[in-house]
Design a protein that fits this description.
The complex is a heterodimer of chains A (746) and B (152).
Chain A (H helix, E strand, L loop, with lengths): L1 E4 L42 E5 L2 E4 L4 E5 L8 H13 L6 E5 L17 H28 L6 E4 L2 E4 L4 E4 H8 L7 E4 L17 H5 L15 E6 L6 E7 L1 H4 L4 E8 L17 E7 L2 H10 L1 E6 L3 E7 L2 E7 L6 H13 L3 E6 L2 H7 L2 E9 L11 E7 L2 E6 L4 H12 L6 E5 L13 H13 L3 E4 L2 H6 L7 E9 L5 E11 L17 E8 L13 H18 L4 H14 L10 H14 L10 E9 L2 E12 L2 E12 L6 H21 L4 E2 L2 E2 L18 E6 L14 H16 L14
Parallel strand pairs in A: 4-5, 10-22, 20-21, 24-25, 28-31
Antiparallel strand pairs in A: 1-9, 2-3, 3-4, 6-7, 7-8, 10-13, 11-14, 12-13, 15-16, 17-25, 18-23, 19-20, 19-22, 23-24, 26-27, 27-28, 29-30
Chain B lengths: L1 E7 L2 E7 L5 H8 L18 E4 L2 E4 L12 E3 L11 H8 L9 H14 L5 H8 L9 H14 L1
Parallel strand pairs in B: 1-5
Antiparallel strand pairs in B: 1-2, 3-4, 3-5
Helix pairs in contact in B: 2-5, 3-4, 3-5
The chains are: A alpha+beta (746), B alpha+beta (152).
Chain lengths: 746, 152
Amino acid sequence: MTKVITTQDRRSFLKVSAAAGGGILIGFNWLLGCTPSAEQVKSMPEEWYNINGFLKIGDNGLVTIMSPNPEIGQNVKTSMPMLVAEELDVDWKDVMVEQAPLNTDIFTRQLAGGSQSIRQSWESLRTTGATARQMLILAAAKTWDVPPEEITTENGKLVHSGSGKEAGYGEMASAAVDIPVPDNVPLKEKKEFKIIGTSRKNVDGHKIVTGQPLYGIDTYEEGMLVAMIIHPPAFGMSLKSIDASEAKNMAGIKDVFTFETFGSDEKRGSFDISAFPHLIAVVGESTWQVMQAKKAVKAEWEKTGDQTVPFHRSGREWSVNFPAGLESTEMYMQKMKDRDAQGGETVREDGNPRENFDKATKILERTYTAPHLAHNCMEPMNFFAHVTSDKAILKGPIQTPEFLEETASDRLGLPLEKIDIQMTRMGGGFGRRLYGNFLIEAAIISKKVNAPIKLIYTREDDMTAGTYRPAYLATYRAGLDADNNITAFQVRMGGMSESPLFANRFPAGALDHYLAENWSIDTNITHGAFRAPRSNFSAGVEQAFLDELAEEAGKDPIDLRLELFEKAKNQPVGENNDYDAERYAGVIKLVREMSNWDTPPENVHRGMAAYYCHNSYVANVVDLVMDGNKPVIEKVYCAVDCGIVVNPDAATNMIEGGTIDGIGHALYSELTFIDGVPQQKNFDKYKLIRHSEAPKSIEVQFVKNDIDPTGLGEPPYPPVIGALANALYKATGKRIYDQPFIKHLS
Amino acid sequence: MAVFTLNINGQKKEVDVDPGTPMLWVLRDHLKLLGTKFGCGIAQCGACTIHLNGTAVRSCSLPVSSVGEDKVTTIEGLSEKGDHPVQKAWIEHDIPQCGYCQAGQIMSASALLLNNSNPSDKDIESAMNGNICRCGTYTRIKSAIKTAAKTQ
């Protein structure tokens, strides 16, 4: 057994002592909220014993485990408690899971982002379970007067084989509460895992399929009003004046007013992004009434000037420029091309790439673009707020509750401890809900109308006031010698207004003469993280370029990549290469085998790609056929190395979903602008992949190893775009350089 | 405002609302049946799918005044204990990721199986095409519908 020092602050083991008379003193309001599911054998216990901040044990052995992080569909509400349950050594069917409250004293990193939830909590959550198990052992040792090291556990039972004594965890829970928290606890060897590595169903599955209220938008409280916002029709515009006289007189309407989401002289936190901080609020009794009144508000808009907005977080200060102007897609795509032609700022240079380009026999140069994308979480942005003079209750879907707590405190002028942010299940996140402007908007509206309110964005509000995946452009160049060896390589990337470049990723490290450059253009169209930020573009274009390079060099695309990884492994070039060449090559070899790459099926066009992001490796092969101008994706193979797979079937689901999401966006989706106005406002114009366009089948295999687990929510999205592009080339004989691909298939 | 008597999940329900109010908001705001979800408001995403006399319809675009005595079934009324073959198949295939669209997917799938007990891939695709899943659970949904078809 490995010993691990308990890493949590001792406050995380706040104990709730049994009150006189055998009752329990409840330390947190979340101790009450759950009920056993239909599948659970045990009924609710008479008494709960709170062993530490993460779990409580009932007198009948039922265990409730808190899931600390926000659930956006990445399934952490199941997989994080699995880590605790493994080390507690309890039967999974005796486990109930509850969403933990935001409490930074107990929990760390209560955030959904970067595919890091499992990776960052791998040790601490297991330690939490192991610590509780140890407290139960110590309690039993004391009760039975035997040495603790002679006590073993199995599936929620304590056993002392010498004396034949046995007790369920429930019987020992009250005694465990009085045990001092041990500092050192042993963790299981990986081969001893009984829960980790086995498929466990979504703990909210039954509630979801029966339509029980789980999401922020399902919040209905006594006396609650509904609020909506009206934002400017175009980026680069702001509110000039409103006439709400008609709207205010409509049935059910309580108030119409304007407000500023972020104070004009206020420094914003890094996630306080909003293009439209000056808004109109419409508040009324019911959603439909508010929707109608919204249409009756007459507003005048005016162009904004250049703006510089100050931001701060953790002692760091910076500012972002939002230039004046009404931007159009056609205009900024040209601007990006012009900017790219001027060259970028060198981020990494290995060897003598410039000189070698001059000497090259052949130069291959290609430019790729991708449009803005809206996040389109199926649950539109919304938040419940009840703000009074001394307290703010804020409840809803938010990926960054920790950060928004601070912003809300600043904005409402209430101390941090008076801000109570409650997390609900989220109808998708994909990065959009990192930016909680809607939470602050809800809070301000509630304060103004002095009532509990739920702010709801319509789909149009959601799609046209986003923090979008920005438009990007990349130019790749490769110099080849007479023997088709790559003698110089260059990548230059930029966007509106961030560069998607990862200078230290493959093929950096595998090439002697490598140059990576960055640029960006300021814009007033707000942008932010979108599933697999930056990788969602850089992977596909890099992998499409390598495919073209392999063809130019007369090599099989897999052989070319494996040659490069061999070089990166044995004679790595430069420093800070942020990938493991052997694991990278590993997923490519696995996908080669899975797809029978060397003897492909007839009449099917296939392409491959591989990528590394969020600490995980994914390789894909896409098989497709053309039905006229429409690609029909027959099969996608996914080889994944994310270390230990905690919940295999759910992980497979995540890979399947990310694969479909990546294909869908690259093939079909775009958000375009004319004079600052988003041209797609709802799903009639904004095309998302649908059932009939999804791959007919997806096969997923995980590399089996004992490496600590890494990201899963994002890694499957980026590489499949490259595999799709390469398969489309095989099918049509035409390389497509601009997304969405569908526009270039007719 | 006008009073409407509706037949929802086998029960008579009375609401006093504007006649143009879509059923989605009657269900959610007035009857607190929250399983039917708001996704787009223009019948393009399927999150709000309910059954009207056994046919899948988008409740966001169905004015309450047009419902009359038609039988409305929502996700809450699909089965008593959550054990409709489609719901069971959804659990068996562990479909939901974020889960938000799934009530609508289940209502479309169950309506399909009412009329077609053994749907082909094409039948499934065409019946389900109005239901968007941003998480991308489409392949699992297809498998689950086939499982449900066998067990119903």
